[in-house]
């Protein structure tokens, strides 16, 4: 099983880099995941070239997406209506059948340890939302196990640990990730975690409680992350490399 993932395209800002990176993926993935901040400043139309490029390059491949902070809250329905070919996950899960296996994907914007000053001023209740989200995500991951999915993926825009933020200023770590979210990353609940948002973080992946966590931020990686998943029940081998 091959999973492709990328976030922080900020179209049109990094669109040329994205199109180049897309052309360099030499294998057809079984699943393609967009990890938020796909557009810049809620420019809904700017998602069109990203959407068309993925659909043309990988016809028939399921395309999942989560929202980032640049896809503004309150506009989710507009994205759903304009881009129905993307399965949008907004604090929810979807089970996808891939090559005889059922993959359960939990998708979310994610949480931050500290809301940004702008969020504090403009999004009522955002601090409480960030505090309560890990428990909600924990419940969704448990639901994936209840449906006996062969593979469970957590896809978040925001980071889920500080351990892979090296390269960013430590003073901004609380605005990039949630350490509390790392508490729900357990091998009995989730097999793979993907996130974006940390543009300058130099580590591609880290292990949290023996679960691989990948930062698929386009500015940081300079490419689309391609992950080979070789699955044998309860035994996973992960390999990420340029394609």
From TrEMBL:
Pfam families: Metallophos (PF00149). InterPro entries: Calcineurin-like_PHP, Metallo-depent_PP-like, Metallophosphoesterase_sf. It comes from the Archaea. Transmembrane segments: none annotated. Residues 2-200 form the Calcineurin-like phosphoesterase domain. GO terms for molecular function: hydrolase activity. This is Metallophosphoesterase.
């Amino acid at each position: 099983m091959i999973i492709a993932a990328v976030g922080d395209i900020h179209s049109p800002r990094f669109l040329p880099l994205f199109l180049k990176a897309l052309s360099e993926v030499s294998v057809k993935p079984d699943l393609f995941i967009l990890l938020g901040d796909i557009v810049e400043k809620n420019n809904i139309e700017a998602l069109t070239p990203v959407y068309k490029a993925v659909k043309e390059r990988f016809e028939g491949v399921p395309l999942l997406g989560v929202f980032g902070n640049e896809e503004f809250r309150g506009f989710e329905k507009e994205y759903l209506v304009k881009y129905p070919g993307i399965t949008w996950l907004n604090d929810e899960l979807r089970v996808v059948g891939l090559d005889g296996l059922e993959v359960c994907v939990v998708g979310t914007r994610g949480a931050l340890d500290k809301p940004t000053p702008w969020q504090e001023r403009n999004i009522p209740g955002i601090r409480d939302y960030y505090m309560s989200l890990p428990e909600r995500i924990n419940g969704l991951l448990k639901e994936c196990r209840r449906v006996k999915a062969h593979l469970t993926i957590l896809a978040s825009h925001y980071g889920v640990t500080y351990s892979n933020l090296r390269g960013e200023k430590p003073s901004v770590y609380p605005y990039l990730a949630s350490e509390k979210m790392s508490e729900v990353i357990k091998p009995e609940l989730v097999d793979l975690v993907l996130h974006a948002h940390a543009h300058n973080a130099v580590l591609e992946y880290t292990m949290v409680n023996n679960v691989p966590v990948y930062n698929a931020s386009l500015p940081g990686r300079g490419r689309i992350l391609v992950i080979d998943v070789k699955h044998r029940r309860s035994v996973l081998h992960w390999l990420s490399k340029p394609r």
